[in-house]
Amino acid sequence: MKRILTIQDISCLGKCSITIALPVISAMGVETVILPTAVLSTHTMFKNFTFKDLTDQLEPIVNHWKSENVKFDAIYTGYLGSAQEIEIVKHIFEEFADENTLKFVDPVMADNGKLYAGFDEEYARLNAGLCAVSDIVVPNITEACLMTGTEYRTEYDEEYIKSLLQKLHHLGAKKPVITGVSLLPNKTGVYGYDSKTKEYFSYQNDKIGVSYHGTGDLFSSVSVGCMVQDIPIDVAFKIAADYTRDTIKATLNDPKKPWYGVNFEATIPELVESLQMAKSQVYSA
Ligand code: PXL
Fold this sequence. Notes:
CATH architecture: 3-Layer(aba) Sandwich
Number of strands: 11
Oligomer: single chain
Helix content: 40-55%
Bound molecules: 3-hydroxy-5-(hydroxymethyl)-2-methylisonicotinaldehyde
CATH superfamily: Ribokinase
């Protein structure tokens, strides 16, 4: 069985970060080891959330794992609570990742042109340093702009996205992939660059026109859960994008939906089915 280490916060209520990564990646048949960066009562879109920083716990925890000789097939990072944690995560990459370990970085810090509560420009600069040592980095447009010092635009064309990807690549990212890219009025998806083949790739599907917290975490969890099982990157992103879209649709159909997250629990069977289908195609190819 493959094993992923995910490093992000526990938002006790809110359906994001570890409360998405753990159930989703486990349901995909992959062991999920967690390293919590902070414990919050809720995610930061609620008012009056509590925040317990766990920076001082990270090193003792990973040192214990080191003494147990634990290895990971992938390390997936999401919301990190402090600037210092970014530096510790870089050190964890050095200690635990070899050429077979996928380093998947989701530089969660901003959306819609704005940083999330608690983050500043310096944090964005340090996150750029983490992306530099990643294999795959999946910022949204806001995060890509912040890390590359580019002006954020709501109206853009393909050239703008390509130049963001090139800037991310120049930072050091091997495969930068920008999420939430909408090049046609009713479409949204991912646009990436593979520095090995020097090729761009994109996958667009229907735009639903509502945004929910946690959908980025859902997308990243599914993508890394597929990739670690040797599903080709383009298929992995398609499965993740389709699953995220279908989950938003299912949530919209629920009259009792919570405002703070999506009903991913209801669509896990569909995810497992598309994963099985992709695996049978990979293995029979
Ligand atoms: O879904 C990203 C995320 C993760 N963790 C915390 C957040 C957010 C987004 O708002 O607040 C604590």
